[in-house]
Structures are given as C-alpha cells and as structure tokens.
Amino acid sequence: MWQGTPIWVIAVTAYLMIISIYAFLRLMFTNRKTFSLFLAGLMFMGVSAFFYFIVIPEELQILKDILIYMNIIVLPVIIAIIIAPDIRAKYDAGWAQEVNKMSGMRVSSELTKEHIIDAVIDLSNRKIGAIITMENHNTLDQYAEKAILINGKVTKELLLNIFTPLTPLHDGAVIIRGDEVVCAAAYFTLSRNDTFDKTMGSRHRAALGISEITDSLTIVVSEETGDISIAVASMLIKLNSREKLLDYLNLYIK
Description:
It is elongated and about 80 Å long. Strands 2-4-3-1-5-6-7 form a 7-stranded mixed sheet. Helices cover 53% and strands 15% of the residues. The chain folds into 2 domains: 7-101; 110-252, DNA integrity scanning protein, DisA, N-terminal domain (YojJ-like (1, 3-Layer(aba) Sandwich), CATH 3.40.1700. By secondary structure, the protein is α+β, with helices and mostly antiparallel strands. The chain is built from 8 helices and 7 strands.
C-alpha cells in the first residue's frame, strides 16, 4: 500500500497526525467543538475504511489511493486549521504568563480605585457603555501597542471623557496599569465560550476573552441597561452595589 509513496509524504503525515492528536488531548475536555471535530474525523476514517475494503473493487486502485491520501494528509490538515484558534488562545495565555514573570505586580492606590468606581457608577447611571481593564501580573502591552496611548493619571474626569459617546476613543477598552491610564480604544479577542448567554454583547465577550488569557480584571458597563459587570478568571459577574465593586477591586487588584 505504501510502495512508491515519497518519504516526505509519510513524514508530513506523521507530523500532522501528531499535532492533531496532541491538540485533541489538550482540548477535548474543555472544548466541545474540538471533541465533536475529533469524532467526525473518526467517522470519516471509518467510512473510508468501509469503502476501501468492501465497496471499491481491486481494479479501481486509484480510488483507494485517493482515500488513503485524504485520510493521512487532507483530514489532519483540515482538523489542524479548524482548531488553530484554540491552540493560539492557549499559546497567548502561556506567552503572557511567561513574559510577565519579570513585570511584577501593578499596584493601584485607593484613590485610583475610588476614581474608577466613581466613573463607573456615573457611566452606569447615564447608560453609557464602557470597558475598563485593570492590569495585574500579566502585561497587556500587546494590546496597548495597537491602541491610542494616553499614559495619564487615572481620574474620574479622564475616564468619563474617554467614554463619552461619539468621541474618537469611546469604542474599545481602557487599560489601566497601577495609577495610570495606559491607553484607550484597545480591542481584545472575543470569548467563544458557549456556556454564556448568546445575546451577550461584544463588550462583555471582549472582557471575558481577556480574562481567559490574563489575570486582569475588567469592568463592563452595559449601554442598554446600565448594568455593571466584572470579568475575572474566566468568570463574568454582575454587580449591584458600589461596595461589592470595591471588594472585587481590593481582592484582585492590590
């Protein structure tokens, strides 16, 4: 069956199959899409084997060869392409944790936290959408580099001005490091976690997405309802009081 097959085909096939198996083992228990994809691949190989050994006669060897190459080359490539975003997300998380071992903890003063909370409450009362991400151990430089740099002291007035509707900076997230507003109009990768409400807006999905790959804390204000939520450690929590918001800031941001 393998007679005449170029060695590079065998090598590439083995490499792709190893990648696919590794990705499956890493993701099957946390990503139902990948698990379903793996089962679909097994079904495809089973159907191919049925046609190869039972349906296709020996005279049509070329069809059998096509089935072989589809299973050992095409199928692994398709699986690798589909699960690439999941692998990239896990790589980003690992990269952020490794790089930030040298960066230390960002310390926010009590005054900074008060300014943030005052701004968030004001935005909530006026139903103005906002997303504020507070950096912890993991740096968010890779997102700040593509945003509008500000490098200004955190104040309620600055935050309210940034999120004023129809201004150039009101879309995207503000990133805060310690007592400084690093940037505005930062954009994060949206979470693809399908366990949350399908009607969740892009701000909430962005907040959840950054919480899945860093140890940051993100505050989100809904422009539809004015509700305040925080995203931290892959969790999205709705808050209903100033005191609870301060408690979470003190717990996760030192």
